[in-house]
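# step 3/5: fold
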Amino acid sequence: MSSTVDVDFDSLDENKETKHAWFIVFCSDFDTYVAEYVPKSQVEVDEKRKIVTMPVLMAKEKDLI
């Protein structure tokens, strides 16, 4: 099993959500945001804590870590 990482996010855009992917807006620093589709099958979203747990490789590929 691959290792995972917790990534803070700013919001979920439910209007752009698909059956298989979340559309998540991540805050990369104080004034820069990155919006990405992430597959629901590979991540866990904690909406209360605003954290997405995902494979480290995916987070690196999307420049989230």
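# step 4/5: annotate
Residues 4-61 form one domain.
# step 5/5: archive (pending)
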